[in-house]
Amino acid sequence: MNVSRVLIAPLAIVSLAALAVSLPSSPRASESPSLRVGFAESDITPDVKARTVYIAGFGKNRKATGVHDPLKARATVLAHGKDKIAIVSVDVVGLFHASVERVRKSLPGFSYVLVSSTHNHEGPDTMGLWGPSAIASGVDPAYLKRLEEQIVAAVRQAEKSLMAVTARLGTARAPELLHDGRQPYIKHDEFVAIQFHDAKTKKCAGVIVQWNCHPETLDSRNTLISADYVWATVRHLEATQRAPAVYLTGTVGGLMTSLHVPIKDDAGNALKDGTFEKTERYGVLVGKLADRALAAATGVSLTPLRVRSRDVFLPLDNKLYVLAWKLGVLDRPAYLWMGDAARAKRAGTDVPPKTPLCVKTELAWLQLGDLSVAAIPGEIYPELVLGKVQDPADPGADFPDAPIEPAIYKQMPGPHRMIVGLANDELGYIIPKRQWDEKPPFCYGRKKSQYGEVNSLGPETASILCDVFRTLVKQP
User: Fold this and answer.
1) Are 84 and 36 in contact, with CB atoms under 8 Å apart?
2) Is the dihedral angle over the CA atoms 238, 242, 248, 252 positive or is it negative?
3) How far apart are CA 371 and CA 88, in angstroms?
4) Which of 53, 329, 421, 427 is the most exposed place for a label (fewest CB within 10 A)?
5) pLDDT per residue over 214-254, tens digit each?
6) What's residue 56's pLDDT?
7) Where in the chain are the domains?
8) pLDDT per residue over 411-443, tens digit each?
């Protein structure tokens, strides 16, 4: 059965046939018209002295030797009448959907819980891909359990701090703060900032910011646990706003990165990749970008709170991922691919070779008053968000005649839009099919293929996700 969820108050799961549930455009008369917001954070820093911690994001067997700055789970709870939504940002490389489902089971009473990872490349392995070897996971189950508990704790604390607020939203652009690591060079350089003010005191109650960049400024040689530049960005905002700040990652595929971005110190000296000096400076510049966005912010309505989400099955065509699943390195369920994104059968461990497999994930669309939010379970390419898939395709592409996927932002109603990447799952890169390029001749006259496909489920991922998202938003 094609299962979809429409969430208005308590979580409701309905079939497609029942999706014509009326979504209110204004608060019900029995509910308070005011928005309430709460913020909280919890510490998720691993104990590097108690056991070996493998750092995620680059090569295998990178062992942590200490801690530079703490990792956090930062939560925002939005409440309006009986509706209550939690949005959590976690300073790790990614969390699989099963972790999010366990978190949700511990948070009854919430209409929806969204958990997004910053995609931090200087924190512990939470997925299994960066252990001591190619056949050994780097995940510490005890740490993962504590991480999930700390997410729940942050949400519960944020819930306790709910207050009536007003909201403002602003945006700013900074292409100079992004490096695109793959042709065609398309940057998603829009920064989104939301500021909440206590309705009584008018003081800032907290901010939510969203930027589209890999937190990997410290590069591959660093062995100290860190949240990378996100640490400095949040610290800056907490100082300027005198309130909590939640950082959300967005469009990071393609590759949107802080590496190779020219950054100078106050004296004009160039700062090098892989240093804490550049990492901190970059984070401060992102914080100042937030200040600029907030300076231009205007009032915005964020109610009513509406969410639609849907489970989606995606073909698992990546042979390395299949092998990692069979070896137990990737600890997530696999399913038998039946050619249908809406249904599949759970696969056993004795699957015959070449049996088509798939994974289950989740897509979501949040309409928070005038703000439309896409919750995408991976690292989506900017082309797929902004409607800039190459046309015509390079003749060297593996699927140059593939249809162009429906752009995420073009499906979303206005007047304001925002994307949350690595939302409720981490699938790797989500690549436009007509830009898929594993086989020679390679695009743009290159002698070697570009980076990306090795960390993607397969060439069908983008088209399925974008098509399902379109139906999710357009469904009456």
Assistant:
1) no
2) negative
3) 17
4) 329
5) 999 999 999 999 999 999 999 999 999 999 999 999 999 99
6) 98
7) 1-12+74-120+162-476
8) 999 899 999 999 999 999 999 999 999 999 999
Cβ neighbours around 91 below 10 Å, total:
28
* Angstrom distance (rounded) from CA 293 to CA 169: 8
Pairing status of strand 245-249 against strand 204-211: parallel
Half-sphere exposure of 430 (CA within 13 A, CB side): 28
Nearest 5°: the CA angle 306, 465, 383 is 100
Does the pLDDT at position 5 exceed 60? no
Are 47 and 67 spatial neighbours (Cβ–Cβ below 8 Å)? no
Based on the number of CB atoms within 10 Å of its own CB, is 381 exposed (0-12), middle (13-18) or buried (19 or more)?
buried
Q: What does the alpha-carbon distance between residue 14 and residue 17 come to, in Å, rounded to a whole number?
A: 8
Q: What's the pLDDT at 33?
A: 47
Q: Are 208 and 87 spatial neighbours (Cβ–Cβ below 8 Å)? A: yes
Where do we find the tokens 């809406």? Answer: 342
| Cα radius of gyration (the chain) | 21
C-beta separation of 427 from 378 below 8 A: yes
| pLDDT tens digit sequence for 277-296 | 999 999 999 999 999 999 99
Report the pLDDT value the prediction gives residue 91, as an integer from 0 to 100.
99
- Angstrom CA distances, 21 to 9, 17, 303, 336, stand at 12, 10, 18, 31
Of 91, 88, 90, 54, the C-alpha closest to 69 is 91
Cβ contacts of residue 282 below 8 Å, gap of 6+?
177, 217, 229, 232, 258, 261, 263
Neighbouring CB atoms inside 10 A of 145's CB total 12
The single residue listed with the structure tokens 């403002």 is 168
Q: pLDDT at residue 145 above 60? A: yes
pLDDT digits (tens, 9 = 90+) for 390-410: 999 999 999 999 999 999 999
Alpha-carbon distance values, 283 to 164, 234, 243, 263, 348 (Å): 30, 8, 17, 11, 45
Average pLDDT for the chain: 93
Sign of the CA dihedral running 207, 212, 217, 223:
positive
What is the maximum span of the chain, computed from C-alpha positions, in angstroms?
A: 65
Nearest to 150 by CA among 123, 181, 115: 115
Which tokens in the block code for residue 354? 């070449």
Cα separation of 126 and 124, whole Å? 6
5 or 91, which is more confident? 91
Which position has the token pair 């759970």?
346
Q: DSSP string of 391-438?
A: SSPPTTSSSTTPPPPPPHHHHS-SSEEEEESSBS----EE--GGG---
